[in-house]
Each structure stands twice: as structure tokens, then as C-alpha cells.
Amino acid sequence: MASRTTLLATIAAGALALVLTGCGAGAPAPSASGAAPEASATADPAATATEAPSDPEAGALSCDTVLTDAEYTRLAAEGHEPRDDPFLLGPAMERMADEGALVCVWNKPNSDVAVWYARLEVGDQGQAWLDQLQAEGWFEDTHQGDGSYQAPADYDANYQPSVLLDSGVLHFVGDNRLLREVRELQ
């Protein structure tokens, strides 16, 4: 067990070193509005394929790339491991999974302590998703002030998940703090 944790920490540290040395330098810079510019239609496909996998624009997102390096390091240090057969946290996450969301769950072995994340591109249907969640009792989390919505208190006995709609993508987390660790929302 200790060697797996050490290995995960080493991998996370290596990924951080690659990012800090500029391997992701080919990523487009954000515009004045904070949004990343669209990729040029004349982009060299070979150059795109060699960009750092931690850049969400570089290719397919996965449970190994959606969070910050610091969060992966924290998860490893706390003994959380990715699950291949994730338990979905309630009906909102289940609906997202049914629609093809990326679903990620990390948990401590032999424990019910888990970290949940789901990501679904909803495009112009984002407001419809939020309307449905509000009809189910989800409410805007004005305490966080980040535009996220929190599940009603009776959603789960131990967790109160949050969702955030950003640029046509719905993000689901088991705990609102994780939204600050989603690489795409940085």
C-alpha cells in the first residue's frame, strides 16, 4: 500500500515538474475575458498530439487529467485510489452518467470515504439542467459565490454535492471544495 502511494506521489510530482518546465507552453493563452481562444483550423495535428496531457484542450479528458496536480497529490497522500466500478452519488450524477459524462470516483480502500467528480458537455442545454436541478431542490450556493448549485440537505446522508455550469460544461462534485481543484476551471 505504501509503495502505491509513493508511486502516485512520484507520478504527480513528475507531472507537476513537466508542467512547470513548459511542456504545456503550446496551449493558447486566455483572452481578456478569461476564456481560452478557439484552436486554429490550421493547427498541426502532430503538434496537438504532443502537448502535455494535463491540458484539457490537448485531447480526451480522463480521470487522470481533470484535476490539478496538487489535488492528485492530496488524494494519493490520503490513500484515495481511482475506482473502475464507481458508485454514483445520487440521481443527478446518475443522469449525467446516462448522458455520457466522464465519471470519476476515488476512494480509500475498505472504506466508504470517497471523492466524486463528473463532467458533461451540455452546450446550450445547461440552463435546462440547472432548472431541473432547482425543481429537485438544488439551490444556488451564495456562500461560495462561484455560481455553483448545492444539493438539498436530504440528497445524501453524508455528502452534499455541488454542480457548476461553465462554458457549456456541467461539473458535478461530491463536495464544493473540489470545484477549486478542477483544472478546467482554473
From TrEMBL:
Keyword Signal: yes
Domain of life: Bacteria
Signal peptide: 1-17
InterPro entries: TAT_signal
Keywords: Signal
Region called Disordered, residue ranges: 29-60
Low complexity compositional bias, start-end: 29-58
Name recorded for this polypeptide: DUF3558 domain-containing protein
Organism field: Agromyces fucosus
